[in-house]
Amino acid sequence: MIADPSYEELQHQVAALGREAERCQIAESAFYRQKAYLEALHETSLGLIDKLDKEELLENILDRAASLTGTEHGYIYLREAGGETMQMQMGMGFFKNQLGRRVAVGEGMGGRVWKDEAPLLVDDYQCWEGRIPDKNLDALRSIVGIPLKSDDGVVGVIGLAHVDGHERFTQEDITVLERFAALALIALEKARLYADVRRELSERKRAESVLRESEARYRTLLESSPDPIVVYDMKGVATYVNPAFEQTFGLSRDELLGKQIDFVPEESWPETRDAIEKMLSGQKINLFETRRLTKQGQVLDVQLSSTLYRGADGRPAGNIVILRDISAQKQAEKELQTYRNQLEELVAERTAELERANRELEEQVEERKRAEKSLRKHQKDLRAQSQHLEEVNTALRVLLKQREEDKQELIQMVRRNVEELVAPYLEKVRNTRLDTRQDTLLQILETNLNNIVSPFINRLTDEMGNLTPMEIRVADLIKAGKTNKEIADLLVISKNTVLFHRHNIRTKLQIKNRKINLRAHLLSLEK
């Protein structure tokens, strides 16, 4: 038979059952509290992930961290560029007036968490040896710091505090805050990436806008250029031609684009191949003179400049060719050479005349010398004729003086001719592109032209001294047999302007309304 338990044993059993029930209640309370933390953490994480604005996100992180731990006071430090300090960029409650505070590694709560890269819980901040010596922080009591850690180390610190001495943070709070800090760091990284992407998109849009403006500006430049321009790819296929190219060569874009342009005359191919080889070797082709054909078969003298352009990969993608029609300039050079030859013949004629005059003068001088010698020999016999000899000497001096005056008059005549008939054309040649040797020869020509004699301009000026320089030039070209159109082209004026000057010349030569050929009249002035 089993004995009944004693009263004391029953008391012990009841006490044990009470303790077990108390432990169950504590475990159940911890379970429900942990469940509430996890539910709040889940809701918090969903709210954070949707935030993209950094300031709004920091405010939301701090507000939710404070809600999880039942406080109204908190802050967030973020590491600054350079990594030497952290700055408080968000604060609430007690820390609202502490915004902008900076701490170094190991300084204060934020600096210590940064240094140790681990959470830190202080029950009484006033008694903590690592506190910042600032009276404004004396009201702080229990305080906790949680690091925001990434692969690059601590990027920030979440700090929470109580100012009531009866309130304390627990290890459960630290566990929840560590999980929350991991979610907050993800949200911050997402916001940073979003800001980087938005900034990159903005920069790309600005770059695309600048590129579009640049393309439009350069296309406008190409389209408005008076010189023909063609762009080739590396296979020699035309990818662009400007309106000036179409107009100059009589070819439309439909006939050119996507094709190799066949407008090189057969005799110009060797020099063209040499130029292409130089360009492909990296040399720039500048003002290369050659010839090109129009659609109608007309051969044009052109100056050609070409250079390679590169693609996005840095490799040559094609070349740009700029051409300039210099046919009119070449024709002007030929006419100038003809006129220069005429001037040389005129100079030779006038020089021969001067040489003849000099020989005659020398003969007269020799004759005078012989006479003087004869006079000295026969001084006694010719004293009676001394008066006569004096008169002869006087006549010779007058003749010499007259010769000198004639010479000066001839020089003035030549200078006037050069200034009014030759200098304008030389000035036009000077304004063309000349190399150093051509410019030097032009200066020598101008100097030598001062010795030229032209009776036509002298006679014409004597006949009617009030002719303008332009009228004198027109009269000279009329005398040379040029038509009104040719005169207009040479002087770069309109045909109507030439007719106007012809009318003025006839009026000033007093042959207006008279049946006299103007060229014949001008030619008669040379006789």
Polypeptide structure, described:
The protein is α+β, with helices and mostly antiparallel strands and 527 residues long. The chain folds into three domains: 9-195, GAF domain (Beta-Lactamase), CATH 3.30.450; 225-325, PAS domain (Beta-Lactamase); 351-524, no CATH class. Helix content is 57%, strand content 15%. The chain has helices at residues 7-49, 54-69, 108-116, 171-224, 243-249, 253-256, 269-280, 327-377, 386-430, 436-448, 455-463, 469-479, 484-491, 495-508, 518-524, and strands at residues 73-79, 85-92, 102-104, 120-122, 143-150, 153-161, 229-233, 238-241, 285-293, 299-310, 316-325. The chain has a six-stranded antiparallel β-sheet with strand order 3-2-1-6-5-4, with helices on both faces. Strands 8-7-11-10-9 form a five-stranded antiparallel β-sheet, sandwiched between helices. A hairpin with a 2-residue loop joins strand 5 (143-150) and strand 6. Helix 12 (469-479) packs across helix 14 (495-508). The longest helix is centred in the middle third of the chain and has 54 residues, at 171-224. The model has no long low-confidence stretch (mean pLDDT 79).
